[in-house]
Each structure stands twice: as C-alpha cells, then as structure tokens.
Amino acid sequence: MKVTKFGGSSLASASQLKKVLDIIKDDPERRFVVVSAPGKRNAEDTKVTDALIRYYKEFTSDKDVTQTQQWIIERYRAITEELGLKESIIQEIAEDIYDLTNLPKKGNPFTYDAFLAAGENNNAKLIAAYFNQNGLESRYIHPKEAGITVTAEPSNARILPSSYDKIEELKDSSEVIVVPGFFGVTQDGDICTFSRGGSDITGSIIAAGVKADLYENFTDVNGIFAAHPGIIKNPHSIPELTYKEMRELAYAGFSVLHDEALVPAYRGKIPLVIKNTNNPNHPGTRIVLEHSNDHVTVVGIAGDSGFVSINMTKYLMNREVGFGRKVLQVLEDLNISWEHMPTGIDDLSIILRSRELTPIKEQEILKQLTQKLEVDTAEIEHDLSIIMIVGEKMKSQVGVTATAAKALSENEVNIQMISQGSSEVSIMFVVSKNQEEKAIKALYNAFFSNN
Ligand code: ASP
C-alpha cells in the first residue's frame, strides 16, 4: 500500500490534475493521496497559499479583501470548470473562502494558520470530487478526522505521537482517501499548520501512521539531482539515497523535500520515492534506510553559500584545558548557533551561517576572544561557501578525498578548510564563495563524468 503526495505544481491546473488521476488509477496500491494547495502554473504565477497570506493581511488590516477573495475563488473555478465538475463543488469552496472572514481578526494566533490551511483543504475536496466523478471511488478526509493532532505552535506545528494509532485506523478503507497536506488540529481543536512547504510532512506522517510500503512524493523533477542543475547542465538524478545522505544534501542546499518530512517516514522505516508527475515512468529517487551492497561511493555534490568563519590562533592552545568550552560559551551567550569546528594544533575555526551574526555581535565576539580568552589573533572571514561530497559508502572506500582534492587543485580552487565527521557520510570543503561554482563543476566531473 502506498501513500502518494502531490506538490503544488502537480495540482496547479486541470491538465495537471488529469495526470494525477492517471497516476492514481494506474496503481491500485495507491490508497492515500495527500495534496498541496494549487501552486504556480508558470514562473510569474502566484501560489494559492501566497494569495491566502495576502488575503489574511488585508483582512487583519481592515483593507478591502474582495479582489483577493475573487482571485482565489477564480483559481479553483478555472480548474473545476475545465474538469467539468459539478457547480456545487465551487460553491462549497467559495463559501469556505468567504467564511474565513468570520474568524477572529485580532488576538487569535491560529487565524493566520486557518487562512493558509484553506488552500490545501479546498484542493483536497476538489480532488476527491474529481476522482469520484471519474470512476475512482474516493473520500476527502479532514486532518481532524484523520487524527492528525499537533502541538499548538502556530505555523510551526509538530505531530503528537499519539496521532499515529488513530491514523492507522484509516488503513482498511475501501475508498482512496484524499487528505489535505500542511496542517493538523490541536488538542483544543484549532487548525495549526506545519512550516511552509509542510504538505510533505503530512504525507510522511500518513505513510508512517498507516505503515505504508512506500511513500511517494510527486513533484516536477525526475528526483534529486546529483548536483544543482543551475550549475551542472543536465545532471543525472540519483537513483537511490539513504536518509542520512538526503539529510546531508538538504543541509547543503538541496531543497526538494521539506527537512522535517523525512523524520516520520524514517522512524517508521518507510522507504520514500521522489517522482515526477510530468514523467511518471521515470523511476525517480528512492530514499532508503540502507544501500544495496554494490552502490556507488559518492551520490551527490552540494554547495551552499552564506557562511562565515571565526578564525583564531593561540600559542599552546592544545594544552589549555577549557579553551574550547570558553569559545563556545561566548557564542552561546550571544545566542549564536554554529555549524562546524575544524581545528589545528594552535588554531581553531568556527564556521557558521552568516545570518547568525550582526556587526555588533561580530565586534563583541572579537573583543571577548582577545580580552577574555587572550588569543594571539582573531578574525572573521566572510563570503564562504561549503561544498559537500555525500555518500555513505565513503566509509569503506579509500581515496575519495584524494580524488576530490586532486580535482579541486587541478581547477585552481583553494581549499580553505576540510572537515569530515566520524560517520563519514560526507566530506566538507570550505572555499571562498566566488570559487563555489568552479569547485562543484570540478567535483562533478571527477566523480560523475562517466554518467
Ligand atoms: N501550500 C503550502 C506552502 O506553499 C504547503 C505545501 O505546499 O507543502 O507552503
């Protein structure tokens, strides 16, 4: 049994919905369908969720909402008309969109979430109606009925573990169940959304709850690419990734799936596949717990900019008990989260995201390092990028770093730092931002030129 989730671009128009119907009809194991709100039809278009944000802002600042209301309703009407759905569906959707203005305007932290959730909720109703009208017996289910109970953290809900038993009860339904993604209901009955892009999380929760054999996540690309297509022309898509590898790639800038979406499926030991609605016969990328034995060593190369490094040196640093703790205490006191800490004998660097710093915080760090920790030198280096080579099989393979370093040196990329965790899922290189593209190209050619 499979849980199948479709993203906004897969549901943006009637022609996309026809593909969705074919995909579900094509495999009787697809018993649960989780849907996003209608996304963009083209690059200039607006996502329904973004239009709902506008609607909320106009509503709460006492502006005229009519135009935005109409735009949203028309978005659904265009789809229902082209699909030849009954008029009652669009009437129900329109009423729901109008009724949002009956929600408390001030002082209720969940009103915003209720506006946003309307995008997925109405889309799920529309899609269930469309399936039924085309010979696929299906049923729309509200997250409350499905048992998706979440913490009361507006726009950042977390699933409550008690939900899973209730969700499991959906298992034996004879109809295809259509669930709106992106939100759950608190114990007090308020609608509360996950963070943006959170329909992926709902799909993962349902898959874990009903103990699906597979969680299929349909998007508009042939799976996860081995490198960013903006940098590498036509990179190949990765056939198989482990959850750990996916986490590393996502960390360094790959954003196909919502970060938190991996957790329920991972804990429930449910394999996941990312597929393309516009090319459903392509196998996509499978995300599994463990690779088969003969799997390639390096699966992907990711890069991300926006890093800074706090570099310090102090003679005999290695002998000073407590030095590292004191450095980290400086950061903790300023509420700064750090990412990596490569060290030498008498030097230490802390790599962090530049968004963690402000000019005032930078000054404070340098002051504390020189005055309190009495370092010999301290500086903050900006405009750095990290490049990650990812692959669990590197652990049992000699020479990956050598291949990478050779490729980088042949292309005159200066490696500023190298770091590898003991789990050896990835090797990280720090380079200057203006060498990031060159580095990714060099590494892609070194590891994937035969593909
Ligand atoms: N519609 C929501 C968003 O745009 C959630 C999702 O599509 O996953 O963030």
TrEMBL record:
Record-listed substrate binding positions: 49, 120
Pathway the protein contributes to: Amino-acid biosynthesis; L-threonine biosynthesis; L-threonine from L-aspartate: step 1/5; Amino-acid biosynthesis; L-methionine biosynthesis via de novo pathway; L-homoserine from L-aspartate: step 1/3; Amino-acid biosynthesis; L-lysine biosynthesis via DAP pathway; (S)-tetrahydrodipicolinate from L-aspartate: step 1/4
* GO biological process terms held by the UniProt record: diaminopimelate biosynthetic process; homoserine biosynthetic process; lysine biosynthetic process via diaminopimelate; threonine biosynthetic process
Keyword line: Amino-acid biosynthesis, ATP-binding, Diaminopimelate biosynthesis, Kinase, Lysine biosynthesis, Nucleotide-binding, Transferase
The UniProt record gives the binding positions of ATP as: 5-8, 219-220
In which family does this protein belong, per the annotation? Answer: Belongs to the aspartokinase family.
Q: What name does UniProt use for this protein?
A: Aspartokinase
Protein's organism: Streptococcus parasanguinis (strain ATCC 15912 / DSM 6778 / CIP 104372 / LMG 14537)
